Amino acid sequence: MDNLGTIILATGGLGTAAFGIVEALKWTRLGEAGFGSINRVLGPILELLRAAYGADFQSLLRAHYRGDQRELTRVIRQGVRVGLTAGNATQAAEFLGMIDGERLAEAARLVAVGRELPAELRNVLGRFELAVDTRVDAALTLAQSHYVGATRITASVFALLIALAVGIYLGGDYIFQAILVGIAAVPLAPIAKDLAAALQSASKAIRLKP
Questions:
Q1: How far is CA 90 from the centre of its chain?
Q2: How far apart (Å, rounded) are the C-alpha atoms in residues 181 and 56?
Q3: 24: Cα separation from own chain's centroid
Q4: Is it the case that residue 185 has pLDDT exceeding 80?
Q5: 116 secondary structure, DSSP code
Q6: Based on the number of CB atoms within 10 Å of its own CB, is 144 exposed (0-12), middle (13-18) or buried (19 or more)?
Q7: What is each CA distance from 34 to 66, 116, 149, in whole angstroms?
């Protein structure tokens, strides 16, 4: 069992190393895996971000996407609120549904001139912001799902390549074992330490038995 625990730790270490390589590749196109889901789910809402952040708003979103997802959420929500105008309100309302586009445009016009909104228009604006928040959450959840899948596949490829290289270095007899370690490395990495500790504890308990 001690040897098995060592093998598990080594496998987990390989998986961790593979994920480390993937993390270092965030500056490449891999770091944007899943980003297209945001554009698809938000649709015309992106025009509000263009109004808020300018023509190069996509570069801003992509930069945040590679970093903190919570900061990206804040940037999108804040941009939608700032970028809502009487000119783009109707299209945004039609896209989201269940919102009166004309009243939303009127609310945006009054906000732009610094007028206080009546209760009815405040409700319309509140429903719009809630609908946008829901869309943003859905977009980021879908994008993150695609991103995690892409990184796991990439990490698996690196783990297999590293394991195969080690197997070749050690000799042809170890290639099959190396491939097995590479296959297990990525899914086992998060739990390798705990699993190895459990096996070592069980091994000690067996040896202590009379």
A1: 31
A2: 45
A3: 16
A4: no
A5: P
A6: middle
A7: 11, 40, 9
pTM over 0.85: no
**Does any domain span residue 210?**
no
* Number of domains, the chain: 1
Residue 65 falls inside a structural domain = yes
Three-class secondary structure of residue 46 per DSSP? helix
What does the alpha-carbon distance between residue 146 and residue 152 come to, in Å, rounded to a whole number? 10
Instruction: Judge whether residue 179 has pLDDT over 70.
Output: yes
Domain that holds residue 135: 2-204
- In the chain, the amino acid numbered 175 is I
Contact 99, 89 (CB under 8 A): no
Least Cα distance to 12 among 202, 199, 161, 191 occurs for 191
Task: Name residue 119's amino acid.
Answer: A
Residue 72 lies in a domain: yes
Q: Tens of pLDDT along 33-87?
A: 999 999 999 999 999 999 999 999 999 999 999 888 889 999 999 999 999 999 9
User: pLDDT-based confidence at 195, cuts 50/70/90?
Assistant: very low
pLDDT value at residue 199:
46
Tracing tokens 């598990």 back to the chain, one arrives at 8
Tell me, yes or no, whether 209 lies in a domain.
no
Give the Cα separation of 138 and 73 in Å (integer).
11
